[in-house]
Amino acid sequence: LIPVSEPLLGGREEEYVLDCLRSGWISSAGPYLEAFESQWAAACGMQHGIAMANGSVALAAAVAALQLPPGSQVLLPTFTIISCAWAVIEAGLEPVLVDSDADTWTMDVRLAEQSASARTKAVMPVHMYGHPVDMAPLLELAEAHRWLVVEDAAEAHGARCYERPCGSFGDVSCFSFYANKIITTGEGGMVLTRSAKIAERLRSLRNLGFRRDRRFYHTEHGHNYRLTNLQAAIGLAQVERLDDHVARKRRMALAYAEGLRGLPVQLPVERGWARNVYWMYGIVLDDAVPLDAMGLAAKLAGRGIETRPFFVGMHEQPVFHGLGLFRGECHPVAERLARRGLYLPSGLTLTQQQISEVCEAVRAALGSG
Ligand SMILES: Cc1ncc(COP(=O)(O)O)c(C=O)c1O
């Protein structure tokens, strides 16, 4: 089997975790948490890092921390993970969906502008499969309209946009450290911010709404979103390996581009202003290909090659239709990506030999072998 993703724990993970076990710092305080938060924030050019239990609750806490007026609209891409939409809805805000750019698969900034209204108070750019959203026009819009920016960089550790690290653009920026991410803690997440005030709120929100001034006395709704020192120990070792992990992803992408050349599929792009970290190597089948993504996935599975389909747009989710949201909306780029896109094995330990095998299997499945 060639798995779709595998973590690489090739640095000091074991040493740091053993140190936690020996010192007894295994819960949600300790030196590795502090080091992980500050080093990841620094790597992304931000002042404060607030570690969270996973990327989904990082998004939820990040949106909640902005304290937008109830009913405010938040622009976000329809083509993303469902956590983005829930973060907005659970904060009592209204999600407004935007279609994607057909080449980078990230939110189409021009369409975002068209979808905005006087009630729009924030925008959530989501870097997709390692490629950044075009942040220059997006930040210009946000500034002009005084929108706050919730950046979702869960798929873009080490990526750059106009030479700046992804995760450095938001009023709040979110990461996931799930096991398939470029930096992992098994499960985990973080919110980054430049604002000491927002950082303080985030620390309270992740810890049951505890206040600094009076213990067990609560003035707002918080959750237990804490990450452990044990997980942060893994995270710190991973941060030390970031450059190597990104280099591996970029080598993988070069090898795939070479091996898939000439096939009727769209490959990931890298815009001139971007550094793509190819978190997952996605392909989109040309319309002329008789198979859809599910058909191709089944053929590859038959040869022991694991893949994952692309996201299904938020406007096509029955759970939201049941809430009276997004019914009848049409976002043609996202709809096509959901049907014709999938990603190939992209793990950090993938070998050149495995990439060649996958390319050969794709070629055969498409009848070009
Ligand atoms: C863009 C994006 N945001 C948020 C998340 C949620 O992260 P987690 O799985 O850690 O909850 C993911 C998860 O894969 C993601 O891809």
Tell me what the structure shows:
With 369 residues, the chain is of the alpha/beta class. 37% of the residues lie in helices and 14% in strands. The protein contains 13 helices and 14 strands. The strands form three sheets. It has a seven-stranded mixed sheet, with helices on both faces. β2 (73-77), α4 (82-90) and β3 form a beta-alpha-beta unit. It starts with 12 loop residues before the first helix and ends with a helix. The structure holds pyridoxal-5'-phosphate (PLP).
In angstroms, what is the radius of gyration?
Answer: 21 Å
- Summed over residues and divided by their number, the pLDDT gives a mean of 97
Q: Describe the sheet with the most strands.
A: 7 strands, mixed
Quantity of strands, as a count: 14
Strand content: 5-15%
Distance between the termini: 21 Å
Taken from the alpha-carbon principal axes, the silhouette is globular
Major sheet: order of its strands? 1-9-8-5-4-2-3
Low-pLDDT runs: none
Fraction of helical residues: 25-40%
The secondary structure category is alpha/beta
Order of SSEs: HHEHEHEHEHEEEEEHHHEEEHEHHEH
Number of helices: 13
Bound molecules: pyridoxal-5'-phosphate
Give a concise summary.
The protein is α/β, with parallel strands linked by helices and 369 residues long. The protein is 37% helix and 14% strand.
Write the SSE topology.
Layout: H1 13-23, H2 31-43, E1 48-52, H3 55-65, E2 73-77, H4 82-90, E3 94-98, H5 109-115, E4 120-123, H6 135-145, E5 148-152, E6 160-161, E7 164-165, E8 172-176, E9 189-193, H7 196-205, H8 229-239, H9 242-259, E10 265-266, E11 274-275, E12 281-285, H10 293-302, E13 308-309, H11 318-321, H12 332-340, E14 341-344, H13 352-365
Parallel strand pairs: 2-3, 2-4, 4-5, 5-8
Antiparallel strand pairs: 1-9, 6-7, 6-11, 8-9, 10-12, 12-14, 13-14
Helix pairs in contact: 1-8, 2-8, 3-4, 3-7, 9-13
Bound molecules: pyridoxal-5'-phosphate.
Pyridoxal-5'-phosphate binds at residues 54-56, 59, 80-81, 83, 126, 152, 154-155, 176, 178, 189.
